[in-house]
# Entry
Amino acid sequence: MKIGIYSIGLDGVSYLKAIALELPSYDYELYTDTRQIDLIETEQVIGKGLKELTRRQVGIIVVLEQSHRLVAFERFSNIEIIFSKTPHELKNYLTNNPELEKSLSKNQTRNITLTEHTPKTDLAVSAILGGILIRE
# Structure
C-alpha cells in the first residue's frame, strides 16, 4: 500500500518533495488537479481524484486542502484520510498508527498524475522536483 497525496494545483508537488525528504523509503502516489476549476465543479473533482487514488492501492490519503474535509469523509470512509500541511504531521500520524505504517510499501517510488499537462505545469513540476518529467 502506498501513501496517496491529493491536491488542487501544484502545492502537492512541493509537498511530495518535502515528504520524500522526511520519509524517503515510502512509496507515494500524487494526484493533483492542475485544471482551472470553478466552485461548482469542486466536489466532483475532489471525488474523482480521491477515487483514482483508492484505485491505485493507497493505504492512506493525505489531503492538502482543509476545505475538502466534508467531501473526503462522506464518500471515502473506508480509507484513512488525513489533512496535513506539513510532512512532520504525516510522520507523527504514522508513528501513532503502527499497524498502518507497517502496511505501507517501502520501495521509494514516486508516481505523479497531473490532470492537465501544459508547458507551464510541466516546467513547474520539473523545477520543483529537480528532474526531467517522463510521461507514460
